[in-house]
Amino acid sequence: MIANKPRVGEPVDKLSFSVADGEGSIAIGQPKDRWTMLFVYRGQHCPRCKRFLSKLNQALPSWAELLDVVVVSADSKEKALADKKEFGWEFDLCYGLTEAQMRSLGLYITEPLSESEASGLFSEPGAFAIRPDGTLMLVDISNGPAARPDLEELLDGMKFNISNNRPVRGTA
Questions:
Q1: What is the rounded CA–CA span in Å between residue 103 and residue 15?
Q2: Considering only Cβ atoms within 10 Å of each terminal Cβ, which end of the chain, N or C, has fewer?
């Protein structure tokens, strides 16, 4: 069950995610120079996530021209690093998404079916476009692994929204 629905046009909670292949972290929900696209994935156990993120990685140069791309899951650092190495992902891959952060983003949360799936709660997929002022422009949340945004359509839409300074939609 979603704890709270993210409100477009309003500030995203200030959240920080640890970067898997670095010592630092990435923060969202605060002013910065560029737009941010945050993708939340289920974790290492999800083959659909790996296919989606590999497609994102192939298109990363086009995305990176327009905005910062951040990807996060509840996985451990070790699991995130293993996937990054295996698939050669070049985007900022973060780990350790907490239940409180999942709820803050309004994500669906799942209990694992077994220890082989995951060792604790994990979130279902989500995509969040965040304006440079830290407000939420666009949100796409799924309750399962099969429903994902089309990356080409999403990028095209974001190009249009950013270049035309489009207002937030779906506020009622």
A1: 12
A2: C
